[in-house]
Amino acid sequence: SLPAVTSYFNISPSMTQLTISLYLIGFALVQIFIGSISDALGRKKIATIGFIAFIFLSLLVTQINNIYFLILCRFLQGVAMGCVLTGVRAAIADLFVGEEFHKFNGYLMLAWAIGPIIAPAIGGYLQHFFSWHASFYFLMSYAILIFIPYFLFVPDTIKNKKEFNIRYMLTNYKVILTNRKYWAGSVTCGCVYSIFLLFNMVSPFVIQNVFHYSVIDFGHIALLMGLAWFMGNLINRVFLRIDYKIKIKLALYVMGATIIITLLLSTVYFNILILTIPTFILLICSGLIFPNYVSANIQLFPEMAASAGALNGSILLAISAFTGSGFGAVLQSNNSSLPLNLGFMLFILISIIAYKVYTTKAHKLECI
User: Fold this and answer.
1) Which of 64, 53, 63, 45 is CA-nearest to residue 27?
2) Cα separations (Å) of 235 from 191, 243, 281?
3) 14: nearest Cα among 326, 243, 253, 297
4) How many CA atoms lie within 13 A of 157 on its CB side?
5) Of 50, 22, 23, residue with least CA distance to 35
6) What 8-state DSSP symbol labels residue 278?
7) CA distances in angstroms from 17 to 9, 48, 294, 313, 326, listed in the order given
8) Which of 63, 141, 303, 325 could cross-link 21 (Cys pair, CB 3.0–4.6 Å)?
9) How far is CA 70 from the centre of its chain?
10) Residue 187 carries which DSSP code?
């Protein structure tokens, strides 16, 4: 619906993209604090507050006729969903450890992957038959359907609540953020997720306005891209017993080879296939890398799982928000897919460097 929102408010595409970027910023910022708050109040209370706020804001968005108010509401929606995700993710860390944690956290990542698969396809039909408002009515209804059984049947999983102490929280974050492996994993999560986000923010304008495909056609293409991410998650689940560092390394090799070939082709060709096929391959690899680094980062600090998970989410979403507000506006092109592929290449290069940092022993880094 990004082109439709642009037309509805008579604004630039970059302004429309802020509705996504500010959502992600709200999602990122709240997780810095909400993990420690959930340790004090409980997982269920935090998630419940988030659900109620998101439902109310989804209804409010449908009544808005001002783009700045829409952007504000989207920011607050991000805050609300950050509360929900933090509560659920921390509950998994409460219940499982070791290999069991990786197993059930993998299920959470699969669920995360399902959203981008089905959401654009559903949104395409809602946009075609109704308007962009219909997507928010749908999200409101969906949130209500999830919240009711969650509120009635899911208990709070935290065993020992801790008093909220901002000094203790900042101390935890200092310990976490001085770990180079944690930084490398978080930055890579942000980069591979940004590949997905960048495609979803730039390609609607190219596919609908340049290639003249319908909004439903775009929904089907976006569904295919989401399926690629899901396939990467699934491949990771199938090969769960293989060392995660080996899986990440192989995925990065494939991504590097894919983007080099694509850059060469994109200097000559500009069509739907050169836009979608390489992205499909990159997203399979991204979907494999992402859950491995998320699980590994949380397992680095099992006694601070909520804080580690929340901070990881904040870092990767902050990177994604920058992708939307910065790259999303700069990399649009009416006659080439080269700018978009250059953006992909940058994220892949950063991910490769981060992997080297992640797998290099500390004393070697000090020598360098």
Assistant:
1) 53
2) 20, 13, 13
3) 326
4) 17
5) 50
6) H
7) 13, 28, 26, 20, 10
8) 325
9) 21
10) H
- The answer to whether residue 71 scores a pLDDT higher than 70 is yes
In the block, residue with structure tokens 């708050």: 37
Distance of CA 260 to the CA centre of its chain: 25
Collect all residues with Cβ–Cβ distance below 8 Å to 111 and sequence separation of at least 6.
none
The pLDDT tens digits of the residues spanning 324-352 come to: 555 655 555 556 677 788 889 999 999 99
Dihedral over Cα of 341, 318, 296, 222: its sign: negative
Please enumerate in sequence order all residues whose Cβ is within 8 A of that of 117, keeping only pairs 6 or more positions apart, or say none: 223, 226, 227, 229, 230
Cα distance between residue 241 and residue 258, in whole Å: 26
The H or E element containing residue 160 is none
Phi/psi of residue 67, each to 5°? -65, -35
User: What is the C-alpha to C-alpha distance for residues 257 and 251, in angstroms, rounded to an integer?
Assistant: 10
Tell which residue, 359, 327, 360, has the closest CA to residue 346: 327
Instruction: Please check whether residue 83 is in contact with residue 37, taking contact to mean a CB–CB distance below 8 angstroms.
Output: no
Neighbouring C-alpha atoms within 13 Å toward the C-beta of 187: 20
Asked if 285 contacts 255 with a C-beta cutoff of 8 angstroms, the reply is yes
Whether pTM > 0.70 for this model: the answer is yes
User: What is the rounded CA–CA span in Å between residue 113 and residue 117?
Assistant: 7
pLDDT digits (tens, 9 = 90+) for 276-289: 999 999 999 999 99
Return the amino acid letter for 146.
I
- Taking alpha carbons only, the member of 195, 156, 151 closest to residue 285 is 195
- In 3D, which of 132, 161, 113 has the Cα closest to residue 64? 132
Using CA atoms, how far apart are residues 248 and 146, in angstroms rounded to an integer?
A: 33
Tell me how crowded residue 278 is: count the other CB atoms within 10 A of its CB. Answer: 22
